[in-house]
Amino acid sequence: MASARTKTPRPGTPVRGSRTGRPIMALLDLLGRRWALRVLWELRDAPATFRALRERCDDISPTVLNARLKELRESGIVELSDDEGYRLTDRGVALRNALVPIAEWADTWGGGGGRKRPS
């Protein structure tokens, strides 16, 4: 049997940080996986083929990209269309919209936000 670490996190099942699989913990487990947020973010504005997505993600390994896309598809966040490649589902768009305030905060933080930036 595969470990909880290799299975796609799902609300209601044990995930990292939660034996009960609270929805927020399942989401954090999913998005905390290597490259998951980057893949999601690179699909935020437009669909992409596997090759284009790999390039957008700085040549992520095909094995890791396949694993992340599989998990994001199983979670209903990403889908594969016949004509456009991978794209966000309605659920994925809602997640992207929820992440926008975090991206805006990060831009402010990266712009100085109290810390001296290296020259």
Automatic annotation (TrEMBL):
Instruction: Give the start-end ranges of region Disordered.
Output: 1-20
Q: Domain of life, per the record?
A: Bacteria
Annotated protein name in UniProt: Helix-turn-helix transcriptional regulator
Q: Where is the HTH hxlR-type domain?
A: 22-114
What UniProt keywords are attached to this protein's entry? DNA-binding, Transcription, Transcription regulation
